[in-house]
Amino acid sequence: MPWDIREKVWDHLESTGLAxxxxxxxxxxxxxxxSLQACSSIQELDxxxxxxxxxxxxxxxxxxxxxxALQARKTLLVPTPRLxxxxxxxxxxxPGATKEVLxxxxxxxxxxxxxxxxxxxxxxxVDLVVVGSVAVSExxxxxxxxxxxxxxxxxxxxxxxxxxxxxxxxxxxxxCQVVDIEEELLDDHDLTVDYILTPTRIITTNCKRPKPQGIxxxxxxxxxxxxxxILKTLRSRExxxxxxxxxRDEHPHLANTTRAAALNKEVAExxxxxxxxxxxxxxxxxxxxxxxxxPRLEGSGTITTVYVGNIPPSLRVSELKGALxxxxxTPFRLNWQGAQHRAFLDYKDQVTAERAVTSLKGLSLxxxxxxxxxxxxxxxxxxxxxxxxx
Length: 390
Hints:
disordered C terminus, globular, single chain, alpha+beta, five-stranded antiparallel beta sheet
């Protein structure tokens, strides 16, 4: 599962001393010892030599690629953080910039100080895309940090005509981040990579899986539309072109046709096993609410539990219940564990639970994007507690 893989990579980088600033690397595209060496090998790629316009993510381990692009006098585009103000910034070094100044331009501070925004009509024509990864396979399957911004950036570039089907994608990782990833963990909107650069290797993936063909609107929520203003403009344009731009919120029963494989993609964070004294420590923040109309389900043995994590401390159970109603995902029982920033939702069968996971994917409450997944250990008849994730 993606979150299992992420946690293993993050833990390994930290425990072996391979992790570099900013730390801890958990919840980030991790920086690592040897990142500059890995980045410098991009100059050996023909796709880099030929490229005139390069898009590089703002992550710390990609700093060396941004520097290489500036030193080669290429147009460097960097996505705006979390796409809040647009899609790209173009890095414009001052006239006659020395190597030291270019080095500053390649840092996160330099991206802020030496950039100009590129709008939808900026005529961007990206020849090479460089993204960060938490894990990647030699076949080109990529796992990011779980927020979906790299996938969304690429889909938006497709929509605005900035990339073509054959635009190469490169990622920079440590050797230990190259792992086996099962293809069924990938969804239609996931970005694959063509080249993997590590401190010791250049891997050509020969990946044939199609990259995202544009924005998959039925996976976009109103909340996401509000957070990424440029999405509104793209949606308006595509609507005028006659495309179906129905949002997930407008099509709550779309989950009926969602492939079971897509559900595997929607795995969220691992939580520590619940301590035996956990219920006492939770006090009033821990309670279970049942639907009195469904008492027969209590002993049926078919209950399927959904885990909801990353719940902000300020969120009240009533707000979560309201969101569940809005997204047609009301469980027959809700186990609220606010102090642990999580809740467990019981559904009468697996199909209903899977629909709820699909409907709630990407939901943001109180400023946090919730992590939603089928609980790994389902409650069976006679169990007193819902098993939390390992």
